[in-house]
Amino acid sequence: MAKVVFTPWKTQAQLLAVRDQFYPPPTYDGPDLRSQACAKVSIWKLRGSLPHPVEATALLTDAILHDDAGKNSIFSIRATYSAAFCRFVTGLVDAKIPGMRKTMFQRAIDLGLPASFVELRHEATHRELPSLIVLRNATQRSLEWLWDYYWAKVDPHAAAAPPVSASVPADAEEVDGDDLGVKESIRDTLSPLVKGEEGEDQQPPRKKRKAQYQTTTATQLVSICKASRKGAVVLSRVLLDESVLVPAGRRLGDSLHDTFIKWEQLLQMITESHSAFLSTLTEEMVNDLAFSTQTKDTKNNACHEAIYTWLDHILRSTEWKSSRRLLSFSYLLAACEANPNHWTDMLKKVLLKEEVKRAKGAVSLSVPRTQTQTQTQTEAMIVDGNADADAGALRELGWESLELWDSRPLGVA
């Protein structure tokens, strides 16, 4: 006997209509109907039996619509983003969900949810609210993930699907069609730089011309990453698999100094415009170190040594200091612990040292000081890398920081 399923919508057409309002087709040029979709979902919520992906999509979309500094304070915008994002992640990976007892990270891996989402949820729940840039990026990535996880399966043959998804068969693997086209675009964009590195008869360009070309290349790659839901992953795989960040024919112990000079600035430009790229790249790197099955002798694998050297450089060099806040330290550690080997053990030591430094830095910012140091302490409490800009925006809207509480016993003047 067929199982009866109760839904808050009367017909499948109603659900598809709401989906098209959340994810309008590329050819749609009408008014923005996302607020109507959120209102419809709130009504469905009252009826009960609302799937979590539908509710999460509405919450995340409503947070985006709330993102208006002219009407709302920066703090309320960050709080709204954080609440929507935390509910989205918790509803998927909550440890109290019936079934085998697993950690949130384990449940995330089972669902294909980026581990960085779990870490960001933990940060927003137990630490400082993440910066507005991080929250905006995480919300966009969450909506893209929800499309693949739920909405694309509602009607796989719908013609109104966002770009690329509708053309992929329902039973096809996620790595053909779409990814092949993205990969070819990335290869074409990187090709002049790669040939410039390998060609012996090509004259090296001047510094100014080289910088301009790198800027153009970075802009094109960022556009590709933002246009495709898996763009950052595909770009990371091209950089790692096609002798870009790991030179072809490299031997164990060879220096990567020239490779750093060649590619580091480009990677930083991409990270500045697309913050999700750095966390994706480092996650793909650690996956290669921890889960690669190409060889058992990982210690003498020159490719693994090069990947470890890149990770060590990103984690400890001054050039990447300002970008390290974008990394998912929890995932990198979890991957190292999941499959210990020579390079993951070394990477784990580096990660633990960096975690200690971060903890010491956070503690030093919270040490009480005298009244004469009030201004310095107020500035030191701004832990988030983007909080300075948020604080400036708050001051423009009439908000000011209060002096720190001077703790003393009752009755003491």
Automatic annotation (TrEMBL):
Residues 191-213 are annotated as: Disordered. One of its GO terms (cellular component) is preribosome, large subunit precursor. One of its GO terms (molecular function) is endonuclease activity. GO terms for biological process: maturation of 5.8S rRNA; maturation of LSU-rRNA. InterPro entries: Las1. This is Cell morphogenesis protein Las1. It comes from Aspergillus cristatus.
